[in-house]
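thought: fold this chain, then report.
action: predict
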Amino acid sequence: MAAPVRANLPDRVWAVLLTVLGLAVLAVAGVIIIELWRLSSGVLARTGLFSFVLESELGVVRDLYGALPFIYGTLITSCVALLLALPVSVGLALFLTEMAPPGVRAAISFPIALLAGIPSVVCGLWGLFVLVPLLRGQVEPWLASTLGFLPFFRGPPIGLGYLAAGVILAIMILPTITSIAIEVLRTVPLSLREAALALGATRWEAI
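observation:
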């Protein structure tokens, strides 16, 4: 009886260690939330939560703390990033799982995995020094002349704006969405695809 217990001891120690580490992550997140709430409680007590979220003016000297522009900018940037990254990511996942030869699949999968490891600071610097001048000089004037009747594309070509932030964020989330889409497509049973083809569906219809 002593041998099985001794053999299971490393597994038990490892399980306890992983549990402690997982609880430590939750504890750190809880401490961050509590500390943020404690430091912002004075402002929230003076302005109120709804005023903090819905007001657009920000001025520390005048004791104004409106977060609406930041919330609006985050939502717009996220929507632009999803509109740009989602079709490309799903298309890449379909190509890699359904149509790409093994050599092409390996050649494309490696840069995608490498892109996921690029720090966000590097992406931001690339966007500031490379993407912003390109948008200001080429893309935004063309969008203003072509789609200027829409309010999103009006105004002078500045370069620094929602479009640049959305493109950078799209590049950053593209590897993650592609990996998730590939794993989801791989979970589809082969029998379902064969059944669709047997019923007369084309390859694209089966996909």
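thought: worth noting. The chain has two domains: 1-66, 68-207.
final: tokens above.
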